[in-house]
Amino acid sequence: MPKRVDHEHRRQQIAAAVRRIAADRGLEGVSLNEVAAEAGISKGFVQHYFASRDDMLRFATTTLRSGLEERITAAPPEADPTVRDLLVALLPLDDAARDDALVANAFLVRALKDAEIAGHFRTGHGQLRDAVAAMIAAARDDGDLLPTVEPATEAGLLLALMSGLGDAVLLGYQTGEEAVALIDLHLSRITATPRKTP
Amino acid sequence: MPKRVDHEHRRQQIAAAVRRIAADRGLEGVSLNEVAAEAGISKGFVQHYFASRDDMLRFATTTLRSGLEERITAAPPEADPTVRDLLVALLPLDDAARDDALVANAFLVRALKDAEIAGHFRTGHGQLRDAVAAMIAAARDDGDLLPTVEPATEAGLLLALMSGLGDAVLLGYQTGEEAVALIDLHLSRITATPRKTP
């Protein structure tokens, strides 16, 4: 099915151009002209793959989380990442993570007006929250976190904190090191006192 | 100086129109045409008060925090607001607070590309952080919070949490009630054990 593959490849290529422009100058920079130029294809080609700008923006939001997932799963399997590793990977501490955060911010206002985009955001958040909650539950059951920690609630709190810390780093309110120190401060409050080795 | 007053009044009127459009459809909706229509004045009039769209956007960012400050100071002085009151006032739980949060989000990507707007954001954040830190220091010194709480650090952590919770409420990840419960969960971890009355 070469034609089908090519179609999907082109749409991904256009979505990548949308993400780059959105990260650089927000959705106000995402015009047909700019996307065509950024993707290195003609305007007619863009219009062939997307019936409207809204269609293009909606498709682009389905591609937002892949970068994050790649960074999280990039850790070698034997590393057995901790909750802290996962949280630090959520901070915009390198160019790729920074671009992901900028794109998510660029789409936020639109997500509130577009039920389909809001749905993509909620699905992505739900998956991330479930993943964090599962890691918290495992750490609690291993005795690393306090037994009173409720995984789903704590995951919601941590993801809100990470979202805010991400913006704080982008805006220069906190350095990356300060943001990591605040994660550690928060985790220290839910960490169980080390068990004595028998 | 009626002329000077009128000039400032007009600029505020235009900034309010910019904020309403930004809250509704992001900066991508803020064009000369739309602002003039929203403010109920002619395009020429808008151009008379602002040399460029960038000038208009920069001025609008100087007017962002006033709504927040009004809500915080709206509490009667005898109420002696707590840290919790202040934090809850930061959540987008009513239309005014929701619009403030939307406008701040709409300007975020631009703030990263425009040193002047970034400066306005940082100044506003610094003032808010100082205010929260002072309330935390007072609560700690009164014995309400743990003596180990470091006011400036805790204020940074709390404001990041509030920023993330605000987005979570806007996007429907958390209800307002859930967000308030997460604030209470966080505060419970830095609250001193009640002192015995002698």
Automatic annotation (TrEMBL), chains A, B:
PANTHER family: HTH-TYPE TRANSCRIPTIONAL REGULATOR BETI, HTH-TYPE TRANSCRIPTIONAL REGULATOR RUTR. Residues 8-68 form the HTH tetR-type domain. This is HTH tetR-type domain-containing protein. SUPFAM superfamilies: Homeodomain-like, Tetracyclin repressor-like, C-terminal domain. Keywords: DNA-binding, Repressor, Transcription, Transcription regulation. Residues 31-50 bind DNA. Transmembrane segments: none annotated. It comes from the Bacteria.
